[in-house]
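> call design_seq(struct)
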């Protein structure tokens, strides 16, 4: 399954299940992050949970990143 397909399936889950997936992924990669990076991720997650209306769909974020990447090539 591609990353895009995984993300599409993730979008179909209820919010609490999406959060659980996020927590599991964070734990999986936590050893590769500095304490400052973990703290920043926690801060951003808390802000997103407190203000979901300010969040952007992941597809929009990925499209913006891809557009910037292609522009630099």
């Amino acid at each position: 399954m591609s990353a895009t397909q995984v993300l599409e399936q993730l979008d179909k889950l209820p919010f609490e299940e999406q959060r659980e997936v996020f927590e599991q992924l964070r734990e999986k990669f936590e050893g590769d992050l500095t304490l400052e990076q973990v703290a920043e991720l926690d801060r951003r997650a808390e802000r997103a949970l407190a203000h979901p209306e300010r969040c952007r769909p992941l597809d929009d974020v990925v499209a913006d990143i891809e557009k910037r990447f292609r522009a630099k090539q």
